Hints:
disordered N terminus; alpha+beta; 2 domains; 4 helices; Jelly Rolls
Amino acid sequence: MSRMKVLGIGVSLVAVLLGFAGVAAADVITATADTFLGEWDGATNHGSDPNLKISPGGENIALVYFDISGVSGAHIDSAYLNLASYGPYTAATFTVDRVTTAWVESEATYTNATNSVSWTTEGGDYVTAGEATGTRTATNTDQYWSATAGGAIDISAIVQYWKDNPGTNYGIRIVSDTSLNLDSREYYNQYNNSPPLTGYFPPLLTIASSGGSAPVPEPATLLLVGTGALGVFGYIRRRRMS
């Protein structure tokens, strides 16, 4: 057996082992649907509005949906919600929860999830399991929270639930203790139509995942791979000693 063949077998074995272990992956996902629910205009849909209003006491509630079907990793290492906000420029605390009822961007209102389906509870159905919080500092400028710049909201527990329970991703619900506006995807699309540029940012979800989609190897398969690896290394050792 030539050295090149031995090397080729070794590389193949390493590739197999890496496939079993899973390779970390990163995804940046733009919101595919967003709107806000207004208590004082309960029958009005805001799916095409250029911003997402959020207010104390649930007077205005933002809903955002991200399609995570393309995320390959089974384990969510991190999932950062990236938002852009503008006036008023006061400190704020945000709460993010998992929505439990399907809604339609162009139909959802404070009272209804769709034109034919009412929320069980007005203002949107949600659970607090995996609830995430984030803060915005007082400033005189617009803010964008990114995973790299800091301040993004980690919603890993929510995204992990979606991965573990396919068919349960109905997006997230965002409320705040301060009234302010967030850029919606409509505002972003109106002015940019490209990845984030200064001034206009859609809601983004930055996900790091690992584990891949490769099946867990059976013990017999692991034994076969391990035996093959030992054989290759033994061959190399014998050639060097001869």
